[in-house]
Write a structure and sequence with these properties.
Largest sheet: 10 strands, mixed
Distance between the termini: 41 Å
Number of domains: 3
Shape: elongated
Structural class: alpha+beta
Strand content: 25-35%
CATH superfamily of the largest domain: atp-gated p2x4 ion channel domain
CATH topology of the largest domain: atp-gated p2x4 ion channel fold
């Protein structure tokens, strides 16, 4: 670099630059500039403030609790169970009532099972055999009911048979009934009580009408005219998903009940209302699919007079209900505190900390005593104790 270049560089380091504004007396450019300003202002007022309500603080950390109860009785008369009255203790699993529960609507019953040896079901591919060597003793039957004993049992002169197993015998062999056992469960009712709370704003509410009338919950049913009656008819819930109750009761299914609390807390608490939606969650469109429906097995055990243990095996088909709650609460808070009330300057001073920098680049004595990194501390949460630095710092 030459001598002239070095001299020019040293002089430019000491230059001071400032902005220069040129006012163009052009109506088209001026109109375009004002239109741009109006567009931005309209966007802020209409979209950000009125539509999206950007002036509000929101709380999405919804706290929720669900209590469920099912009521209803029905009568059946079958060869396996005889005459039987079914109440809530028989057909609701689990009985304590949570946000997920199951209502039995159909059954395959295998009574009087006892642990002993018997032939495995012919519907189990891994149990088919032609000779005893096909049934190695002690090995379980894949997707079967027990462990092999080493014998291949054949009926008459048939060449193919099934392995003998040690299991709860006789094994389940019956197919699903063509009509749901508890078809009248359509008229059962579900009680869904939901407590919600937005902790940020200390706001709580429930989906049950605040009344002293003890007969209210015994006579009301949920509907457009009774949004605060949490009593739902099973058949109605299923129909709201677009399904037929008798069809879903036959092979089972999964129903989702969604409760949405989207509350504008600037309004009266009575304006914060739950919104319900109902949907079918299992594979309802493929009735012949192996993945359609919902079922599981359970057993009831007992002993006879001689102390021998027996059980009744039940393959239960039914409706699983999943109750899901979400929501958000919005409140007109910081903007009011900082700008619109009498003592707004007090709250503004608490939210924003001013830092004065001396000529030598160090903070003054009062701010230095507050400790290093004052202007870099993040904004504290609401109600975050007595610290002074509870907002973003502003340097002047």
């Amino acid at each position: 670099m030459g001598q002239a270049g070095c001299k020019g560089l040293s002089q430019s380091l000491l230059d001071y630059k400032t902005e220069k504004y040129v006012i163009a007396k052009n109506k088209k450019v001026g109109l375009l500039y004002r239109l741009l300003q109006v567009s931005i202002l309209t966007y802020l007022v209409v979209w950000v403030f009125l539509v999206k309500k950007g002036y509000q603080d929101t709380d999405t950390s919804l706290q929720s609790s669900i209590i469920t109860k099912v009521k209803g009785v029905t009568f059946t008369n079958t060869s396996e169970l005889g005459e039987r009255l079914w109440d809530v203790a028989d057909y609701v699993i689990p009985p304590q009532g949570e946000n997920v529960f199951f209502v039995v609507t159909n059954l395959i019953v295998t009574p009087n099972q006892q642990q002993k040896t018997c032939a495995e079901s012919e519907s189990i591919p891994d149990a088919l055999c032609y000779r005893d060597s096909d049934c190695p003793p002690g090995e379980p039957v894949v997707a079967g009911n027990g462990v092999r004993t080493g014998r291949c049992l054949r009926v008459g002169n048939m060449q193919r048979g099934t392995c003998e197993i040690f299991a709860w015998c006789p094994v389940e062999t019956k197919s699903r009934p063509t009509k749901p056992l508890l078809g009248k469960a359509e008229d059962f009712t579900i009680y869904i009580k939901n407590f919600i709370r937005f902790p940020k704003f200390n706001f709580s509410k429930t989906n049950v009408l605040d009344t002293k009338d003890k007969a209210f919950l015994k006579s009301c049913h949920f509907g457009p005219e009774n949004p605060y009656c949490p009593i739902f008819r099973l058949g109605s819930v299923v129909s709201w998903t677009g399904s037929n109750f008798q069809e879903i009761a036959l092979q089972g299914g999964v129903i989702g009940i969604q409760i949405e609390w989207d509350c504008d807390l600037d309004k009266a608490p009575s304006e914060c209302n739950p919104r319900y939606s109902f949907s079918r969650l299992d594979n309802k469109f493929s009735e012949n699919s192996i993945s359609s429906g919902y079922n599981f097995r359970f057993a009831k055990y007992y002993r006879d007079g001689a102390g021998v243990e027996f059980r009744t095996l039940m393959k239960a088909y039914g409706i699983r209900f999943d109750v899901m709650v979400n929501g958000k609460g919005a409140f007109f808070c910081d903007l009011v505190l900082i700008y619109l009330i009498k003592k707004s300057h007090f709250y503004r001073d608490k939210k924003y900390e001013e830092v004065s920098v001396l000529q030598d680049g160090t903070p003054d004595a009062e701010e230095a005593a507050a400790g290093p990194g004052l202007a870099e501390q993040p904004e504290a949460q609401h109600g975050g104790g007595s610290q002074k630095e509870n907002g973003p710092a502003r340097i002047t």
